[in-house]
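During the second year of the project, the team shifted from modelling isolated chains to modelling whole assemblies. The rationale, set out in the original proposal, was that interfaces cannot be judged from single-chain predictions alone. As a representative example for this report, we include one of the complexes processed in the last quarter. Its constituent sequences, exactly as entered into the pipeline, are reproduced here:
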Amino acid sequence: MKLTRQFFNRKTTKVARALLGKFLVRKIGDKILSGLIVETEAYQGFADKASHAHKGKTERNAVMFGPSGFSYIYLIYGMYNCFNITTEKENYPAAVLIRAVQPVQGLELIKKFRGTNKLENLCSGPGKFCQAFNLDRDLSGLDLTKSKKLWLEDRGFLVKPSQIKKAKRVGVDYAGLYKDKLWRFYLKDNKFVSKK
DNA sequence: CTCTGGATTAGCT
DNA sequence: GCTAATCCAGAGC
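Output from the structure prediction step:
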C-alpha cells in the first residue's frame, strides 16, 4: 500500500526510522524501478546547523517549509543530487534524506543509469541512489502521495526495532553541536548501506 | 586494504 | 569568493 500524508506528517526521526524497509518506487515510461530503503538521515528544525533550513527559507529550500510528503532534491558538490522527503507540519522545516536503497525491480535500467554492474555499488549512497533512479532537480517539489512518477509503498517487509542501528550523520562535521546527533538510521548487517 | 585529492556548480556571503 | 547532506580514481601499504 502507498504511504499517505499522515505517515510523513510526524516527528522527523520517527519518519526516518519508519522508512527503513519501505519501498521507493519510480516509474519511467512503462518501466518500474523499485528499491528497499536501508539507510536514512533526519534534518529538522531551525537550530540544526546541518540542515539547509538553518539559515531560513530560501528559494532552494522552500519545499522543506511546506507540507510533508513532498520531494526535496538538490545539487550537492556541483555534481550529484540528493533526494529527501519532507516531514512534519507546514512551516516547520524538516526532511528525511534517503541515503541508500537495496535495488529490487528494474535492475537493468538501474545498472545502465549507474554505469556499473556491481549490485552493492548501485544505490549505496545518496548521490548513487539518485543516479540509479534517474532523480534530478526537475523532480523536486513533487507530492509523493499523488505523483505517478515517484512514490513510497509499504509492501509488508517487517523491520524489528532491534534491526535498526543509529549513528552520526555523514559529512556534517561543520555543524557544531549538531554534528554528533544520532540522526542516521540504517538496517543492521545490510550490505547495501553506504558505510560498514 | 586505506588514504587523498579532484571533479564541478548553485547558492549564499 | 568559498564551499558543500558525494563519489571515484589513483597512490601507497
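The radius of gyration of chain A is 15 Å. The CA atoms of residues 8 and 87 of chain A lie 5 Å apart.
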